[in-house]
């Protein structure tokens, strides 16, 4: 695979930035990388990493990060413009999404100057891939109930515990780890954030095979793992505030491309079905719910754009970050079910457009089963909205 090795001179306006992103993706998104192709063998990890590094050189990642830390120093408006095009393109999900969307913002918020200077550029250049050690067996989205412990020692911190659903753990260089320094009953107190090198003795990674046959996440065991003070992010009691603040950003803006990816998947379904009268007849049986889903995609796009305007104007969005995550995951899951109902009964010997469609929608359907769980379950989002926005009281 050949990718663009050039460092680009980037446009000065959001509109031009979007046009640049569209042109670059059209020139560099090969058939091996496209999600709308029915290829038997997926692109190898090395090609995905090279493509992601090239995206950064082209200005498609690290858009709002400061230039002194390897970013491009632009505003959320340019970020939005590029993400519209990223969503419209059938491109693979990021290998280093945890690094860019969670670890990076946390490092910028609470990290010291050495950590920012060393770790942030390496995330963007793909020299360091990160995973996230938040969820645990029995805890899930309730981060305050986690039981992984970090105990102070003369050499730093000794960590013992277990994490689960750790995306990309087997290929990561560091883990953004949340651990208790006190007892689990302390809930939000004494939570510590650590940037743990994954090669540290005492760490065991066990890959988990998901329903689609992939091994994209894992359970990770920490047995007397010694972590240096230099790898602590912020103060011991800052872990809860930093984690929840960044999760709010993640739910609202980091993956804003999903609204346009949702739209492009609907368009792909319709366009491919139009190539075969039998497939089109099957699709027309779902005309009303499909139309409703298209409306929901438009509403999601508008909501993301409104949040960007608010943030660009200097306001905090706080718990409103739960809205796009909740709305997208519920609506996209309904679309995935509808799309699979259509493509799962496509006629034998269907043409290449329908073969491509079936392969893509099968992946979409299987992946969608987890969308109402990761990055905060539907129940967690509803609880945040009820308590923090609607100010509802808990029923006795």
Name some characteristics of this structure.
single chain; 396 residues; alpha+beta; Butyryl-CoA Dehydrogenase, subunit A, domain 2; Butyryl-CoA Dehydrogenase, subunit A, domain 3; 4-stranded mixed β-sheet; 4-stranded antiparallel β-sheet; 12 helices; 14% strand; globular
Please give a structural write-up.
Residues 20-126 form the Acyl-CoA dehydrogenase/oxidase N-terminal domain. Residues 131-225 form the Acyl-CoA oxidase/dehydrogenase middle domain. It comes from Klenkia sesuvii. It is a single chain. The protein is globular. 47% of the residues lie in helices and 14% in strands. The strands form two sheets. It has a four-stranded mixed sheet with strand order 1-4-5-8. With 396 residues, it is α+β, with helices and mostly antiparallel strands. Strand 6 and strand 7 (217-227) form a beta hairpin. The chain has helices at residues 14-28, 45-57, 76-88, 97-110, 113-124, 239-254, 257-273, 277-284, 287-312, 322-343, 352-368, 378-389, and strands at 130-133, 149-153, 156-167, 174-180, 191-197, 203-208, 217-227, 232-233.
């Amino acid at each position: 695979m050949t990718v663009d090795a050039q460092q680009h001179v980037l446009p000065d306006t959001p509109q031009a930035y979007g046009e640049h992103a569209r042109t670059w993706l059209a020139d560099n998104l090969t058939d091996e990388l496209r999600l709308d192709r029915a290829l038997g063998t997926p692109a190898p990890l090395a090609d995905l990493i090279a493509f992601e590094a090239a995206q950064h050189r082209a200005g498609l990642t690290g858009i709002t990060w400061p230039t002194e830390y390897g970013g491009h120093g632009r505003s959320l408006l340019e970020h939005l413009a590029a993400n519209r095009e990223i969503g419209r393109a059938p491109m693979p999900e990021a290998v280093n999404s945890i690094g860019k969307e969670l670890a990076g913002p946390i490092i910028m918020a609470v990290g010291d100057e050495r950590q920012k200077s060393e770790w942030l550029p390496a995330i963007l250049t793909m020299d360091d891939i990160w995973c996230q050690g938040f969820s645990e067996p029995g805890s899930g989205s309730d981060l305050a109930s986690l039981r992984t412990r970090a105990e102070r020692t003369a050499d730093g911190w000794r960590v013992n515990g277990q994490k689960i659903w750790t995306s990309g753990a087997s290929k990561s260089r560091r883990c953004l780890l949340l651990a208790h320094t006190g007892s689990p009953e302390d809930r939000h107190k004494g939570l510590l954030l650590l940037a743990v090198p994954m090669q540290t003795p005492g760490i065991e990674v066990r890959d988990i095979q998901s329903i689609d046959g992939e091994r994209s996440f894992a359970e990770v065991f920490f047995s007397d793992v010694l972590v240096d003070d230099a790898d602590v992010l912020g103060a011991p009691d800052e872990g809860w505030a930093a984690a929840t603040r960044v999760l709010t950003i993640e739910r609202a803006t980091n993956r804003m491309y999903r609204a346009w990816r949702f739209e492009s998947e609907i368009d792909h379904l319709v366009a491919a079905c139009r190539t075969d009268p039998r497939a089109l007849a099957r699709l027309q049986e779902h005309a009303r719910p499909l139309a409703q889903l298209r409306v929901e995609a438009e509403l999601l796009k508008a909501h993301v754009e409104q949040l960007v305007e608010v943030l660009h104007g200097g306001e905090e969005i706080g718990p409103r970050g739960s809205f796009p995550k909740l709305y997208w995951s519920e609506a996209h899951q309904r679309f995935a079910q509808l799309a699979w109902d259509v493509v799962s009964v496509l006629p034998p010997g269907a043409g290449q457009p329908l073969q491509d469609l079936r392969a893509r929608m099968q992946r979409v359907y299987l992946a969608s089963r987890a969308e109402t769980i990761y990055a905060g379950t539907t129940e967690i989002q509803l609880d945040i909205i009820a308590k923090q926005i609607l100010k509802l009281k808990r029923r006795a």
